[in-house]
Design brief:
Layout lengths: L1 H10 L5 H13 L3 E6 L7 H20 L4 E5 L10 H17 L4 E3 L7 H15 L2 E6 L5 H10 L3 E5 L14 H18 L2 E5 L3 H14 L2 E7 L4 H9 L3 E8 L3 H11 L3 H10 L2
Parallel strand pairs: 1-2, 1-8, 2-3, 3-4, 4-5, 5-6, 6-7, 7-8
Helix pairs in contact: 1-10, 3-4, 4-5, 6-7, 7-8
Length: 279
């Protein structure tokens, strides 16, 4: 448990939005942007889903009031996707509409593969209605090339990630080299088709590749990494003038979040060691 607590302190701001906002402000003062995420997923109760909507509304209100340079990120199973897709869409629209009124960007996180299709559907509905939002796409999934093309064709905004969930080999690339290769391929497509996208990885090879390619394309680009991970690399990128954004989770669900991340993929262990020792 002591190891988990230490890990949580690296990756998670605390249990309250105030702690997350304090972390974001600290990052802002060092030249970083922030994405704040209220932890929680797999909700099966409508009342709980509604409470999660209200928490995100309170978070957005506080971000505007305190003038924090931050967006927020949400997970759809936290907002009722497992109960009813229409309920989830309604809840997301409440958050997206409020975020839009405050001129705060909204990211939709991607969860594991059973929810990919519904997540993209809801994102595109919300994006076409409100704009000012983006979605995470996972390079480990074989379907992601088509998803990227579909979203880009509608003008959507993508946060490209490798993917943290354990998936079956018939739908996903399992070797690290394969995931990296697909990430590079999808990133190359986005350089041609998107005015703005996020490279969300701690892989220095891919980050350097993005920097080199963007010397030609000159797109609006930002690098996103988890709170507490690769801090020296982040500082180096900021010192060179690149946009770097910290993903800052908070909430009482820190223990299941941490233990699930530990159990899902073996290579998360390397990420954990980096987060503690910054290797």
């Amino acid at each position: 448990m002591s190891f988990l607590i230490r890990l949580a302190r690296q990756w998670i701001a605390g249990e309250t939005s105030g702690e997350a906002i304090a972390s974001a402000k600290k990052k802002n003062s060092a030249g970083f942007g922030a994405i704040i995420n209220y932890l929680g997923e797999h909700v099966m109760d409508k009342t709980e889903a509604q409470e999660n909507v209200e928490e995100n509304i309170r978070l957005l209100t506080a971000l505007e009031k305190e003038k924090v340079n931050a967006s927020i990120s949400i997970k759809l199973t936290q907002l009722g996707l497992l109960i009813d897709k229409r309920l989830c869409l309604s809840n997301v629209e409440k958050i997206a509409g409020f975020a839009s009124s405050k001129n705060i960007f909204l990211w939709i996180d991607m969860e594991n593969s059973p929810y990919t299709e519904d997540t993209i559907d809801i994102y595109l509905d919300v994006f076409n209605k409100f704009g000012n939002s983006g979605i995470a796409i996972q390079a480990n999934l074989k379907r992601s090339e088509n998803d990227v093309k579909k979203i880009a064709a509608e003008g959507g905004i993508i946060r490209l990630v490798k993917g943290a969930y354990s998936e079956k080999k018939h739908i996903a690339f399992l070797r690290r080299s394969e995931v990296t290769k697909n990430f590079s391929k999808l990133m190359g497509y986005l350089f041609y088709k998107s005015a703005f996208f996020a490279v969300a990885t701690h892989d220095e090879q891919l980050i350097n590749e993005a920097i080199e390619v963007n010397k030609v394309h000159k797109k609006r680009l930002e690098f996103q990494m988890l709170m507490g991970v690769r801090e020296e690399l982040k500082r180096q990128l900021v010192s060179k003038g690149f946009n770097v954004v910290d993903y800052i989770p908070y909430g009482k669900s820190w223990l299941p979040y941490t233990t699930r991340r530990l159990s899902e993929r073996k290579r998360n262990i390397l990420l954990i060691m980096r987060s503690i020792f910054d290797i």
